[in-house]
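[Primary structure, fold]
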Amino acid sequence: MVCLAALCAVLAVQMVSVGGAALKLEGSVENGATVLNHSMALVQRLDALLAQGNGSDVTLRVVTLGTEELKVIQGHSLVLGLQSDVLAELLHTANSSSLVLRESADSTAIFDKFIRYLYCGDISVRLSQAIPLHRLASKYHVWPLQQGVTRYMMQHLSSDSPAGHVVTWYQYAVQIGDMTLRNSCLQYLSWNLSSVIQSAEWRSVSEDLLMSLMQRSDLVLHNELELYEALEAWISHNQPADAVAENALQAVRYSMIPPQHLFRLQKQSPLMMKYRESVRDLLFLTFQFHSASPIQLGKYFALNCSLFMPRNYLSPAWGSSWVINNPTRDDRSFSFQTQLGPSGHDVSKRVTWNALFSPRWLPLGMRSSYSDHGALQPTRTDGGQPRVIITPASSSQDFAGVSFQKTVIVLARHQGKVLVRHVYNFHQSTEETGDFLVDADLQRRASEYLIDSSLYLHVIVKPIYQNLVTTRK
C-alpha cells in the first residue's frame, strides 16, 4: 500500500498540474488571524488523482453478478480505507494489489460514481440511481452517503418518472428494514392514491403493500368505489392466490358505497361474482346499515369499526375544495354542505359548515369570544399562526349519535402535477394539531405550500357513528 508521504507527494504534483487555486479569504478572526480555505482545490486534485490513476496502488475489479462483465478502477488504498472501514478490511486482508468486488448490475453501473464520492465528497443522484447508491453506501459503511441518499429519496417521492419509483422504494425500504423511508413512501402513496392507481406503478404494488393501503383510513381518493375498481384491476393483472384476493376484498369499506352501485357490482363485477361468498356477510351487514337508522343498528352492531369509517373522500358529499388567494393577509371564510352520514338513512340529510381561515390566529388560551352556537370567533394577532376553524351552522343537537372529524388537505404543485402536500385531522380547529402550516412560510411566493401564490385546500368532514349499548339477546 502507498504510504501517506507518497500520496502527499502525488497530491503536490497534482496541485502543480491544476495550476494552483486562488487564495480564498473567509474573513478575519480574532487576533488578526485569517482563515485560508483551499478545500475546493484539494477536491479538484483528488478528482484528478482518481481520473488519472497517478500513484495508484490497488486495482478494483468490479464483476457484475451472473455475468462476466468487468469494470476496472485504479484506486488508492489510503483514500479508500479512510472512507470505508469495509474496504479498509478487504484491502488489509488482500493477498495482492487487485481486489475483486461482486455487485449487482445496477450497482456496477454506478460504481465509478460511488468511488468518486469517496475521493471528492459530492455526487449527482438520479431517481433510478437512488437504490443502488444506497445499497453500496450501506454495504461499504459509507454512512454520510447512505443518510444523504435516504434524505434524497424522501424529498423526491413526488418527482416524476416514466414507470414510477415510490412503490419500488417502498419495497426496498421494507427489504433493508428502513422504517422511516418505508413510512414516508406509504404516506405518499396513501395521500396520492387516486393518481397512483391511474399509473402503471399500481400494477407493481406488492401483496404486502396492497393490504397496508387497504387497511388505512387516511387514503385520499374520490370515493370507495374508485378503490374497489382499482383493486379489481390489480387482481386481474397480478392473479394472486385466492386467500390474498379474499383478504383484500374484505378490506373494502362496502358501507361507504351507495346501494345502487353495490347492486351493480354483484351482477356485473367478475371479481365480486367469483368471491361472493367471502364478502357475503359484509354485504349483508352493509345493506342493513343502509336500510336502518344508525341509532337502531348501533344497538346491535359496533359502528365504530373500520367498515363504517369514511376515508378521505374528495367527492362533493364529504367536503369541498377551497382556494385562498393572498393567504397572508385577511381572514377568509366560506360555507359548504356535506351529507350527515354514509348511511342510506342519512343520505338526504345535509349539514351546513362554516369554515374560517385566519393567517394570524390567537392561541386557544387567549380567546374569550364565542358565537351563539359555540363557534370560535377569529381573534387576530401579529404573533399568531395560520389556522382553519370549521363549525356547524346548526345546533349540535341535530347530530345525535354522530361525531365529526375534520380533515384539511393541503395541495401543492410539483413538476406540473398537483399532489397532496400535507393532511391535518382535527375536531374543530387546526390548532388542535399543533403543526398546521408551521413550515409553510406563506410570506414567500415560492413556498412549496402555494400554487400560483394561493393556498389550495380541500376540506373534508368525516362523520363517525358512536357506539350504543348493545342489546342483549
About this structure: Residues 1-5, 12-25, 367-376, 469-473 have pLDDT under 50 and may be disordered. The two ends are 84 Å apart (CA to CA). The chain is about 35% helix and 20% strand.
